[in-house]
């Protein structure tokens, strides 16, 4: 590896490295004097006038949960504005990495907001966050390779790893109320052959560092620096999954909380990305538009050293082809209509404000609940995201033995359903249920889907009722 070469190039999977394009338009004779205006009869691209849609009108909200229309715009079949995506481009076959106008918007956003330290970064569109993660596993993971995970995580991504023959290895957290596992990670890596005999050293660490799912917490900058140093020492990639980082919160009751942040103030409030610390190209950042635009758009992007982009293109060519062009058109042209990158940041701030209000209403209600007053439950005040996890203090239960956390949490789940509230058991978000059982005495609750703050307050009433019944109905 040369001094300027990304260390991840040596970690690229044999699958991705061995791919060769299969097409029918490159293996042709070289022509010395080609016609300056050839007629294109190669590709089976339908002329755009075969498309039944000639234009699309969009009405924009002024803010989340406001029914007033802030603005309207029309996407036309052929546009003279190169920054806009028109129907002609949106509904046509296109490059697997995304349409260039949207890629330019994303580059501008990453430069303004994420601010990677590496100079040679590039972006590529994906079909959402899950697709970005799956392609990253495809690019990096060979059968038998190991990938580190926080012991509690967004477990559906494990399917993408298993599909590629990878092996998940959980890293124990020091506590679910803290998001620090530096000591545990270092101990695991330094004693790998003893603790994980027969397994190869890890290819990557998958992390949700800012707005962890399910815990909602963010890693400190000191923790991230320590993880980066361990990645350099032990030569593994860091896959930074960032669906929630822009839904950034102050702590409940913080007198400095503001709902009128400028763009600069909002950016300064964000928890820093691992890419701000990465000087060698070891970090892959995976983003999605699902939380700040809409999940049905199925759009996201990856940020990584540009040397990796051909492998992502190869993965897309085999697995998915191009992201949905109509979605790219709506997203790109909406950002333009909002005023470009700065207008888009302002919209994200509005989304963050609504989530922050919801979080404070919900956490405040939990802290005022009978179950909290009696010591039966404790909310984890999240740093970012759509979730508030609630610790059920089963160690105070009269039947607690130290070995029956799972039994008591299942009993709480039953009582919660009977009380009329649906939650996610923490155990079901663990990589290894047996390893994590002693720390799985919590439930994940989502504050994103309900219509009003009053519904969140009623949900707390029902959670509190379930907890009181768990402890007092014996």
Secondary structure: elements and pairs:
Layout: H1 14-17, E1 55-61, E2 69-76, H2 87-90, H3 100-114, E3 121-126, H4 129-140, E4 146-150, H5 157-163, E5 167-171, H6 182-190, H7 192-195, E6 204-207, H8 221-234, E7 237-241, H9 263-269, E8 283-288, E9 300-305, H10 309-319, H11 325-338, H12 341-367, H13 370-373, E10 377-379, E11 387-392, H14 405-419, E12 424-425, H15 433-436, E13 442-446, H16 453-472
Helix pairs in contact: 4-10, 6-8, 11-12, 12-16, 14-16
Spans of at least 5 consecutive residues with low confidence: none
Mean pLDDT: 95
Using the alpha-carbon principal axes, give the shape. globular
- Residue share in helices? 25-40%
Kindly state the number of beta strands: 13
Q: Could you give a short account of the major beta sheet?
A: 7 strands, mixed
CATH class of the largest domain: Alpha Beta
Q: In total, how many domains does the architecture comprise?
A: 2
CATH architecture identity of the largest domain: 3-Layer(aba) Sandwich
Q: Beta-strand percentage?
A: 5-15%
Which fold name corresponds to the CATH topology of the largest domain? Aspartate Aminotransferase, domain 2
Taking the alpha carbons of the first and last residues, their distance comes to 65 Å
